[in-house]
Amino acid sequence: MSMKALVYTGPGTVELLDRPKPTIRDPTDAVVRLLHASICGTDLHILKGDVPSAQPGLVLGHEGVGIVDQVGSAVLGLQVGDRVLISCMTSCGACRFCARGIVAHCETGGWILGNRIDGTQAEFVRIPHAALSLHPLPESIPPRAAVAMSDSFPTGYECGVLSAGVQLGGSVVIVGAGPVGMAALLTARLHSPSLIVVVDLDETRLAMAHRLGAHATVNSAAPDASQKLLDLTQGQGFDSVIEAVGIPATFALCQELVAVGGAIANVGVHGTKVDLHLEKLWDRNISIHMSLVNATTTARLLRLVESGTLDIGSLVTHNFPCAQAVTAYDIFQAASAHQALKVAIDFA
């Protein structure tokens, strides 16, 4: 049986092709029939050649919601027909890294979907270590909106909010108002900081950040952007600085904005080297944290969505049927021109 799949065919190129439907390989596998997948900024890094482990011929994608189609003999807690959220990180639960909670470096998992094995942007996907890598999706959560829970929300929360030490009454600046930056904004609010500022070049995204709860926004194209940001803290800088873009200029800005005793959390995927200004930072008692998401908070975040505490309905702004999946990539690559935030691909 064949299926439609979005395949990385070479630098800068993705095509909708026929591929064989995946089957169970190991007893711990499951096969999921996709309802919705979504495109991540990391997929664009693959197209640019920033991720050498992802080779042409790969089915892209590590985010999605679907229905369990097949279950391996060793998979507990899942049945055919269950509606599930696919985690961006695959976890065996037993290796030395999983035992330490560093699922991103699982010896037989981690970020493998759409990187080292075929991913979620297809009608079906094989999920290794399914019992720990799939989450039951409550009926009350809309499945298309839930694709943002595969990666964007756990990444924004774990790599951004938690790593930056966002605290009650503190000050936060988020540099980058893409899906992960917006997820960081929404989850930072759970910790009740007194000031959240969002920085971006796109006025449409800045307006959305304001609607989602940012106390202030600043366009980084302004000649005095750094000064405007520092003025918001009376020149003290921000306690928590979250870099959610992944280019040298934004990491440099974050170093300018961090307060004495503050923290910089790098979330963006960097394809080129950046400068670290230790000559300015060495005596400021700051910390710099960088990581891949472990997605160990996904179940808790889903409970917050189910209770109405966390609203995830704003991130998916565009959706396309599977037949128009290449167009979906074109829209996402020109997100600013189309006022797109997160783009979903519908398979059902």
Characterization of the model:
This protein is α/β, with parallel strands linked by helices. The chain folds into 2 domains: 2-151 and 294-346, Medium-chain alcohol dehydrogenases, catalytic domain (Quinone Oxidoreductase, Chain A, domain 1); 154-290, Rossmann fold. It is 27% helix and 26% strand. It is built from 13 helices and 16 strands. The chain has helices at 41-48, 96-99, 130-133, 143-146, 152-162, 179-188, 203-211, 225-231, 248-257, 278-281, 298-307, 325-333, 335-338; strands at residues 2-10, 13-20, 30-38, 58-59, 64-71, 83-86, 124-127, 134-136, 171-175, 195-200, 216-219, 238-243, 258-266, 287-290, 316-321, 342-346. Strands 3, 5, 6, 7, 8, 15 and 16 form a 7-stranded mixed beta sheet that branches. The protein has a 6-stranded parallel beta sheet with strand order 11-10-9-12-13-14, with helices on both faces. Helix 5 (152-162) packs across helix 6 (179-188). The radius of gyration is 20 Å and the shape is globular. The two termini are 18 Å apart. The model has no long low-confidence stretch (mean pLDDT 97).
